[in-house]
Design goal:
Blueprint (H helix, E strand, L loop, with lengths): L14 H20 L8 H4 L1 H4 L2 H11 L9 H11 L2 H6 L1 H8 L17 H15 L10 H29 L5 H11 L14 H13 L7 H6 L1 H10 L7 E2 L8 H5 L23 H5 L5 E2 L16 H20 L27 H5 L5 E3 L12 E3 L12 H5 L10 H6 L3 E5 L5 H5 L5 H5 L7 E9 L5 E9 L9 H5 L8 E5 L3
Antiparallel strand pairs: 1-2, 3-4, 5-8, 6-7
Helix pairs in contact: 4-8, 5-13, 8-13, 8-16, 9-11
Length: 508
Amino acid sequence: MSKGHFLPTRRPSARPLRRAVQFGALAAFLVLLVAARRGGAPPSLANLPMRLDPLAMLAHALAAHALLAGSALALLTLALTLLFGRAWCGWLCPLGTLLDLVPSPRPAARRALPETWRQAKHVLWLTLLVAALLGNLTLLVLDPLTLVIRTFGTALWPALERVVTAAEGAAYALPPLRPAVEAIDRLLRPALFPLEASLSRAPVLYGLVLVAVLALNGLTPRFWCRYLCPLGGLLGLVSKVGLVRREVTSACTRCGACARVCPTGTVRPDRDFASDPAECTMCLECREACPYDAIRFPARPALAPMEAYDPDRRTVLASLGVAVLGVALFRSSRAARTPLIRPPGARENGLEARCIRCGLCVRACPTGAIQPALLEGGLESLWTPVLVPRLGYCDYSCNACGQVCPVEAIPPLTLEEKRRAVLGRAYVDRNRCIPWADHRPCIVCEEMCPVPEKAIVLEEVTVTDAAGQPVTVQRPRVVEERCIGCGICEYKCPVSGEAAIRVFAVEG
């Protein structure tokens, strides 16, 4: 111990409180995601986390040229940031909590990365907002909340469903366990899992994105938050004028304990262990580590100085150029794209300029019909919702996707309005249809059609089969003006591989 320095009485630890808030917020976030299915939590509650996201709400407002009343909740996050800096990142962000659970190198083994790398997150959020002004929201795939929700709905929860289904199947093979399995299954379905097994496209891809973000912790703690998170960059800039901020008192002995434990590496030994409020997540780990109680978090209004990695005029101009070039590139891919089947009312609503890529509609869809688009619609449509009838169908009695969408990219249609919305048109492939090609009976598509006046009718004809014998079969025919393109005919078609009746998008 240095002469003249004595260990003061330590303040009570704030770590248990922070951990409780972190895990409580993560648990609430996951509960809302689980309950986002039709019949679960009210839609206004299920989409609450996204409406608290100021980056997503601001980008949507710029792209859609409209400000939704529900988006005003994002002001609460900004108010929290003005009071306590980046406390959202350190206490409430679900991705931040997951990152804290991932092991990172010990201080001695951490790589010293250039401070200028922190500028990347500012380039990202500035580029994102400029692109939004130009009507493109593709970069919102990098928003931390959309990233977690999308991964949960398209990879993690479907994987858990398959594990549970496999476990039920194995247990059901044992007769003594069958009553218990049936009872458990009644509790799980449809409350948590769909009645029919659902499939996701490219679940490994979505899972790998989250794994990659978490794996970056192997380089340095909270790599994502330090260098890449666009929401963190925006909140960091607001934190420059935050009321409560970290200060070091004269009791500091320069022992360096605070710098060694800081998860974002913002405690600077070369600046008397001061820190940048824009990079501090208010985790209080430095306060816990300080043996002399030399760290305080007073409420003192002031403007923090700008750092070399903070956005300047050159950063803004670079972001402007990247955004303009990127939007032009994305729109050039429209020429070769395949028309997509969109959720009810979304195509007419200008989905691509409104969708924030959160994936809540994917989670809410009870049949698994809604999937994030890959490259079939061009880069501009990446991870926007698309219906894939071979994986699921648009339930005639459901309007959950429009109700749960936090920005009304899928309009909140009433059930009657939704039933009148035309998603596409069904067409019979006579070379694959069983009655047409094989002269064998099959009326599945007609039976499944939910439209009151059937959009698929059967026409009875007598034909000659392969043996030269006359047979009477009923051939399906689509009445185009009645078809709404719900896709149940394609989903239920018993033909292996590509269905004999397929739904295609209606353009215009």
